[in-house]
């Protein structure tokens, strides 16, 4: 059975590595934070002395790191230190971090130049999905490598989609989150407008969720308490998906928009709205709490009633 190195044991990586172990896989893991290594060890994960030590023994190296610069730093350039230099030739590298398409392409080309194979495999589903092994994986890279990776990814998720060549997993992720960011703002604006017009939250929800306004931001992540009891709005906007992560992902979208020259005005506006939101307490709240900013910014006293 293949040995899996797992690098990055944070909010997502910790439970993902634990799920691999629970499924009987041989995992050697590492994080720069000793407390996270200790927590993973408590969950049954074998901890290596370093990322390089884990990669040296592995057939598959999974990284779950904050940003592209962390992935590129951890990979190295294939010489000296770094995961690429210490792994055996032909090792399959799977990066599940959410990073820019360009960084994913750079990581993949460095891995291939060092004699390895590489997939970008970002996820959606958040910490709950990581804990329950219900993540969705969007995978970019060669078909044969995807086929090899799929049974491993299935131990951490339930929907594994091959999106095409290297970088297209990150492309799918960035496009999805562009839709998500814009639609969460749209739903929030509609609820605040409805409030001003005298419409009850429940009535607006009942109408829109059965009409053409229907979307995930409404029916799962409803930004007002009441209509969807499991949405973060019912729990003081505890994430869920934190405002800081939405701001980060829309920043990646902004990079992709700039590179491709797409006329994505709503996307760029959503990026700006969430950038401001994440400069304050919104960073730690679920991103649906944007409704409170929108409500607070409504003109006092004005009403259409
Ligand atoms: P996190 O900050 O909790 O965990 C990242 C971990 O990587 C940290 O513990 C850090 O110490 C470790 N790390 C950094 N460089 C390292 C290195 N060289 N070697 C070993 N460990 C190193 O972040 P997270 O919430 O787990 O998210 C990870 C990735 O998944 C991010 O790209 C994020 O955007 C994405 N993501 C997160 C969520 C979510 O809900 N948290 C959802 C989907 C996608």
Low-confidence stretches: none
Q: Give, in spatial order, the strands making up the sheet with the most strands.
A: 3-2-1-4-5-6
Q: From the helix content, strand content and strand pairing, which structural class follows?
A: alpha/beta
The major sheet is characterized as: 6 strands, parallel
Task: Name the overall outline.
Answer: elongated
The unique ligands bound to this protein are: nicotinamide-adenine-dinucleotide
Number of helices: 14
Number of strands: 9
Q: Gyration radius, to the nearest Å?
A: 21 Å
Query: Distance between the terminal alpha carbons, to the nearest Å?
Result: 67 Å
Mean pLDDT: 96
Strand content: 5-15%
User: What's the helix-strand series?
Assistant: EHEHEHEHHEHEEHEHEHHHHHH
Helix content: 40-55%
A few lines on this structure:
This protein is an alpha/beta fold and 305 residues long. Helix content is 49%, strand content 13%.
Please give a structural write-up.
The protein is an alpha/beta fold. It has 14 helices and nine strands. Helix 9 packs across helix 12 and helix 9 (168-197) crosses helix 14 (290-297). The protein is elongated, with a radius of gyration of 21 Å. Residues 7-13, 30-33, 36, 51, 64-66, 70, 74, 97-98, 123-124, 126-127, 241, 245, 248 line the site of nicotinamide-adenine-dinucleotide.
């Amino acid at each position: 059975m293949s040995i899996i190195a797992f690098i990055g044991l944070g909010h997502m990586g910790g439970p993902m590595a634990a799920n691999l172990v629970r499924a009987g896989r041989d995992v050697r893991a590492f994080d720069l934070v000793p407390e996270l290594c200790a927590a993973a060890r408590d969950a049954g994960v074998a901890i290596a002395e370093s990322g390089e030590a884990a990669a040296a023994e592995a057939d598959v190296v999974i990284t779950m790191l904050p940003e592209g610069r962390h992935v590129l730093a951890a990979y190295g350039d294939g010489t000296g230190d770094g995961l690429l230099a210490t792994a055996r030739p032909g090792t399959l590298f799977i990066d599940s971090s959410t990073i820019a398409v360009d960084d994913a392409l750079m990581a993949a080309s460095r891995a291939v130049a060092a004699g390895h194979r590489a997939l970008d495999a970002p996820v959606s589903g958040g910490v709950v999905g990581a804990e329950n092994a219900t993540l969705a994986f969007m995978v970019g890279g060669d078909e044969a490598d995807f086929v090899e990776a799929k049974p491993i990814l299935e131990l951490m998720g339930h929907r594994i989609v091959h999106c095409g060549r290297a970088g297209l997993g990150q492309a799918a992720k960035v496009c999805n989150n562009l839709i998500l960011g814009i639609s969460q703002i749209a739903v929030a604006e509609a609820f605040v407008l409805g409030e001003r017009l005298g419409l009850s939250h429940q009535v607006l929800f009942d109408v829109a969720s059965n009409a053409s306004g229907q979307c995930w931001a409404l029916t799962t992540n409803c930004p007002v308490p009441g209509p969807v009891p499991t949405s973060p709005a019912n729990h003081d906007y505890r994430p869920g998906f934190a405002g800081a992560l939405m701001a980060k992902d829309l920043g990646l979208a902004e990079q992709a928009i700039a590179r491709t020259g797409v006329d994505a005005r709503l996307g760029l506006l959503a990026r700006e709205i969430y950038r401001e939101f994440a400069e304050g307490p919104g960073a730690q709240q679920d991103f649906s709490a944007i409704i409170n900013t929108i409500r607070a910014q409504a003109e006092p006293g004005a009403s259409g009633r």
